[in-house]
Amino acid sequence: MSTRHSRAAEAYLKDDAVASRHDQTFFAVRQKRDRMAAALPEWEDLREAASQIKKHTATHLADYLERFERNATRNGVSVHWAEDADEYNRIVADILAAHNVRKVVKSKSMLTEECHLNENLERQGITVVETDLGERILQMMKLAPSHIVMPALHVHREDIGACFRRLIPDFDEIARSYDRPHDDPNDPTFLTYVARMHLRQQFAEADAGMTGANFGIAETGDIVVCTNEGNADMSTSLPRLHIVSMGIEKLIPDYASMGVFQRFVARSGTGQETTVYTSHFRGPRPGGEMHIVLVDNGRSDILGDPEHWQTLKCMRCGACMNTCPVYRRSAGYSYTYFIPGPIGINLGMLRDCHLYHDNLSACSLCCSCDNVCPVKVDLSSQIYRWRQQLDDLGHASRMKRLMSKGMAALFNRPKLYTATLRFAPLINVLPSALVSNRLNPWTYGHTMLKFPRKSFHEQWKQLKNEEKK
Amino acid sequence: MSSREEILSRLRHNTRETFDMPDLAALTPITFADPVAEFIHKTTTTAGATLIEMQPTDRLDDLIRRAYPEARSVASNLPGVRTDVNPDTVAEAQELMHVDVGVVQGCIGVAENACIWIPQQTKEKAVCFAVQQLVILLPRDAIVSNMHQAYALIQTSTDYFSRYPFGTFISGPSKTADIESALVYGAQAARAVTVILTPP
Ligand code: SF4
Ligand code: SF4
After folding, report:
1. DSSP SS3 for A228
2. How many CB pairs under 8 A join A and B?
3. In a domain, B81, yes or no
4. Which residue of B has its CA nearest to A236?
5. Using the beta-carbon criterion (under 8 Å), do A248 and B7 form an inter-chain contact?
6. Does B97 contact A200 at a Cβ distance shorter than 8 Å?
7. In the Cβ-directed half-sphere of A125, how many Cα atoms lie within 13 Å?
8. Residue A133 counted as domain residue
9. In chain A, what residues touch B20 (CB-CB under 8 Å)?
């Protein structure tokens, strides 16, 4: 007996090499993020400011949306409103149909994932090409993202190479035009070149470009999109039609706020000082059209939830995933909601608490996510509160019984242990909601996480001895 | 009720408590004693670009040629740059995909992250992205320490967004680490960037 997350995690952990590589990959990103934070003396002040801006905007959202709409409309942009995924898909399909669009190039957007846009468009005979390299790899391999910012890091180069050889029609021709010597036929630089040539062809052919929005700015009507690859810019510089999909919570008041968030997105998420491109779209390109679809899909209801409304502050940077020891050890597919990790556990519960409550077991309440979140979403306290609420939802006793097994599977893995040790200074902090209630059965993860250094080495020795046998 | 009205009224109804905007002027963001030196450092290290400090006696065309000696075509609308393709007059933006070098004017440099503010200045903004390699001119006295300062300058200026409704910060060449975290320059957009710091 176990939760769906712990079962999936156990299966995943059977391959120690894969699991520890995943763990190390994301721990390295987390460390890069730490170096970014340490380099800015104002880091904590920025986090507080970012959190307050988001709280302010979320609690004045109707006014700001009206202002945003006024400014965008004045800039010549068509603004649409979608209450739910169905309406959103309909609006996009109608715009594309009105322009006889056959092929769409798309930059990464978790919102389109949330609304299953691609499947919907493909059913109508429209070709949708993801242009973020990671997303394109997943699309070709028919896989779902395993992380919201680095969606394909769990896929291995050999599989990517095989997929490209099979599915990119002019692979051989592209390969012949590559002039740098490489021994490995799946050398990442070579494969990236192949993808570049393949995707540039797609940009040139597409009839429309779709982007998400990292931010919308009420004061000016700007849409801001941040990428490293420049794929959002390619998607909007070649086709004449640009459709933006934006969750209503992505709005911020003004340029002064934008300064705060621009400094955070990349530093928190990938440990870079900035993304390569931070592009401000304030209207259609000459001779083109720009549409913004504002999507609610449950967000306005979240605002009314006194316990969980602060998830609306999330800017989808991915930092909480990179730091989460459970995410790093169990990887994205172990979670049943399409957004994994700390924020995904919470957003899944808000989407459908009966469907996604299994993910609540994927947390040891170590609080690391709270400490890295640039907008101070109280992720672990929210998970804790959900667990309390499970009693009312009728899932609690089962969950309580199964928690210990799931956590044991995740943390009793000697080969994955190194990162746990490095992680140690953070793990003895309790989420604020828990402090007054230390004897609660839900605190299981804490006892599991307090591995004394000695016992690790004993375990390690034991493992070595067993391997020799 | 339309979806718009529904969403707005639900938001108003579900707002239980309101919070004030923080005083952002109270932030004390990092500044550098020598922003130009820091900008040069960040541009040539983390951003992965090349940087040339133009001397008053240098000719722009020579510097561009020196940066990309193998280039067969240059696209720009800047005065004083010898060009083969004009991004103001190309029939289709796609033509710029085959251009070896695009040359554009940057207006604000940011020392903390090597970002350069480039307001759209040609009919086709593809000149910033679709070309193979990009040269960005930046006056050396247009460098600030941090993004807060850059955004304050953009917000109070009437120079940007008036001709074309687009502007972008670019920090180095297009890059990706999506295959096994290996950093590769030259993802989809310009695969190399040279910044030319022009004398004030
Ligand atoms: S508190 Fe839970 S969700 Fe957050 S980082 Fe720790 S284990 Fe992950
Ligand atoms: S909850 Fe915070 S850390 Fe996690 S993705 Fe959202 S903004 Fe980033």
Report:
1. coil
2. 258
3. yes
4. B126
5. yes
6. yes
7. 4
8. yes
9. 52, 56
Residue-level length of chain A: 469
Please report the atom of ligand 2 found closest to the CA of residue A342: 4
Q: Which ligand has an atom closest to residue A376 CA?
A: 2
Q: Could you write out the three-class secondary structure of B118-183?
A: EECCCCCCHHHHCCCEEEEEEEHHHEECCHHHHHHHHHHCCCCCCCCCEEEEECCCCEECCCCCCC
B120: containing domain: 34-173+188-198
What tens digit of pLDDT does each residue of B3-19 get? 999 999 999 999 999 99
Q: What is the CATH number of the domain that holds B82?
A: 3.40.50.10420
Q: Report yes or no on A105 lying in a domain.
A: yes
> Of B6, B94, B161, which has the smallest distance from its Cβ to A282's Cβ?
B161
pLDDT band at A359 (very low <50, low <70, confident <90, very high): confident
Interface of B with A in 60-89 (CB under 8 A): none
Question: Do the domain assignments include residue A404?
Answer: no
Q: Say if residues B151 and A217 touch (Cβ distance below 8 Å).
A: no
Q: Which residue of A has its CA nearest to B11?
A: A300
Atom of ligand 2 nearest to the CA of A313: 7
- Report whether residue A325 contacts ligand 2, using a CB cutoff of 6 Å: no
The CATH code of the domain that includes A102 is 3.40.50.10420
Q: What is the pLDDT of residues A37-56, one digit of tens each?
A: 999 999 999 999 999 999 99
Query: Which residues of chain B lie closer than 8 angstroms to A303, CB-CB?
Result: 11, 14-15
Asked if A218 and A252 sit in the same domain, the reply is yes
Q: Does B32 touch chain A (CB under 8 A)?
A: no
- Residue A364 is part of which domain span? 4-30+309-393
8 Å CB contact of B169 and A277: yes
Give the up-direction half-sphere exposure of residue A148: CA atoms within 13 A in the CB hemisphere: 30
Residue B21 within a domain: no
Q: Kindly state the DSSP code that residue A180 receives in the 8-state scheme.
A: S
Q: Does B167 touch chain A (CB under 8 A)?
A: yes
d(CA B44, CA A363): 41
Whether complex ipTM tops 0.95 = yes
Q: Are residues A160 and A260 in the same domain?
A: yes
**Does residue A412 form part of some domain?**
no
The Cβ of residue A90 has, within 10 Å, a number of other Cβ atoms equal to 13
CA contacts within 13 A on the Cβ side of A32 = 19
Cα B136 from Cα A369, distance rounded (Å): 39
Q: What are phi and psi of A20, to 5 degrees?
A: -75, -25
How many domains does chain B divide into? 1
Give the burial class of A15: count Cβ atoms within 10 A of its Cβ; 0-12 exposed, 13-18 middle, 19 or more buried. Answer: exposed
Q: What angle do CA A369, A363, A385 make, to 5 degrees?
A: 85
Confidence of residue A454 (pLDDT cuts 50, 70, 90): very low
Residues of A in contact with B97 (CB under 8 A): 200, 203-204, 238
Return the percentage of chain B with pLDDT > 90, whole number: 97
**B39 in A contact zone (CB under 8 Å):** no
Question: Which residues in chain A have their CB less than 8 angstroms from residue B14's CB?
Answer: 300-301, 303-304
